[in-house]
Amino acid sequence: MKMPTQEGRKRYRPNGIYKGPFTNDESFWEVCTCLPECPDPCQGQCGCQACATAYEDSLYFEGLNGTRF
Ligand SMILES: [Zn+2]
Ligand SMILES: [Zn+2]
């Protein structure tokens, strides 16, 4: 597994890992490699897998919440 950056640790406390909705499955965990100059929220445009995944997840859940029957 990659090492999170200092900034990553601040964004995903305490250890810089975004666990998403699959908290129990380590294969889905992503390490945040953001730098301080990254936008906040970061959408993964810096190459950070954690933020890219977090952004996708937020879109997914937003989509779910926005759907009313
Ligand atoms: Zn990140
Ligand atoms: Zn970033």
The unique ligands bound to this protein are: zinc ion
The proportion of residues in beta strands is 5-15%
Query: Approximately how much helix is present in the residues?
Result: 25-40%
State the end-to-end distance.
41 Å
How many domains, in number, for the residues? Answer: 1
Largest sheet: 2 strands, antiparallel
Unreliably modeled segments: none
Can you count the helices?
Answer: 2
Average pLDDT, rounded to a whole number, is 91
The side-by-side strand order for the widest beta sheet comes to 1-2
Helix/strand/pairing class, anyone? Answer: mainly alpha
Number of strands: 2
State the shape: globular
Give the ordered list of helices and strands. Answer: HEEH
Could you tell me the radius of gyration in angstroms?
A: 13 Å
Written description of the protein model:
The longest helix is centred in the C-terminal third of the chain and has 18 residues, at 49-66. This protein has a two-stranded antiparallel sheet. The protein has one domain. It is built from two helices and two strands; from the N terminus they run αββα. With 69 residues, the protein is mainly alpha-helical. The radius of gyration is 13 Å and the shape is globular. Residues 34, 38, 42, 46, 48, 51 line the site of one zinc ion.
